[in-house]
Write a structure and sequence with these properties.
271 residues, Bax inhibitor-1/YccA family protein, BaxI_1-like, membrane
Length: 271
């Protein structure tokens, strides 16, 4: 089983399943080869039980749209209200809820929506504070949203067309890169207590530009792994409620992507 750089999509439940969607053929078990492939996929995810409806692509799309919509509305309302002090408490609550969802492998829609709302508030507060800190940053939030949506759609097209294959080698490389970036962020934070600007990874310098671009690239390619895991869940006949967990996983990647795009735009606006 391939794992994802997104912690929400690791260690998913195992069991026997059946296919309900074929990414290549778009149909229901359309032949011997497809059937054999989907039987193998089914071993990776819990199968819908008696009386449960199997997961479909529409389920994933709708739940992801709802989750992203809640975050967007919460973010806009927070930015407009001026309650920027909510950034830290919202982030802390969202982080705690995310740990509960990940470690309990929960598909509880209430938890997923709470996480989404908290992240929306946190990002809205950060964006609002940045936008109203000076004329140089006006409109930066809208640009970051458009940029995030553009990357999401672009990587979805890349995945569906097979332009970049999600192979075990690709997955290992991406996970390694994600860990490396996370380590650099922690080291830069610690170094900031002793050196002005830390390692210069977040100070608007040329190195900071490069680091943000690398982070955006890794976050973008992480979406491919998220799409692949969602595709496997559909093929494996996971229960429809599992769409909420998939939506949560995608949301965690989008939050990271938005933050990095916003940061890069802030560097550009300072010039």
């Amino acid at each position: 089983m391939r794992t994802s750089s997104n912690p929400a999509f690791r260690n998913l439940p195992s069991g026997q399943g059946y296919a309900t969607f074929d990414r290549q053929g778009g149909g229901m078990m359309g032949g011997g080869a497809a059937y054999a492939d989907t039987q193998a996929q089914g071993a990776e995810f819990g199968r819908a039980g008696a009386g449960e409806r199997p997961l479909t692509v529409d389920d994933v799309v709708i739940k992801t749209a709802i989750t992203a919509g809640v975050a967007l509305v919460a973010g806009i309302l927070t930015a407009i209200s001026g309650l920027y002090w909510l950034a830290l408490p919202a982030f802390i609550v969202g982080f705690v809820v995310s740990l509960i969802v990940i470690f309990k492998q929960s598909s509880n829609p209430a938890l997923v929506l709470i996480y989404s709302a908290c992240m929306g508030v946190a990002l809205g507060a950060i964006t609002g504070a940045l936008e109203f800190s000076g004329t140089n940053f006006q409109g930066i939030g809208f640009q970051a949203i458009v940029g995030t949506a553009g990357v999401f759609v672009g990587m979805l097209v890349v995945y569906k067309t097979g332009a970049v294959k999600v192979t075990p080698k690709f997955t290992k490389w991406l996970i390694g890169a994600s860990i490396g970036v996370a380590v650099l962020m922690v080291v830069n934070l610690i170094a900031g207590f002793f050196l002005t600007g830390g390692l210069s990874l977040r100070d608007g310098s040329p190195l900071a530009y490069l680091f943000s671009i690398v982070c955006i690239g890794i976050a973008a390619f992480s979406l491919l792994l998220d799409f692949d895991m969602a595709d496997r869940a559909v093929k494996g006949g996971a229960p429809a409620t599992f769409a909420w967990y998939i939506a949560f996983g995608l949301m965690t990647t989008l939050v990271w992507l938005y933050i990095e795009i916003l940061r890069l735009l802030s560097y550009l606006r300072q010039d």
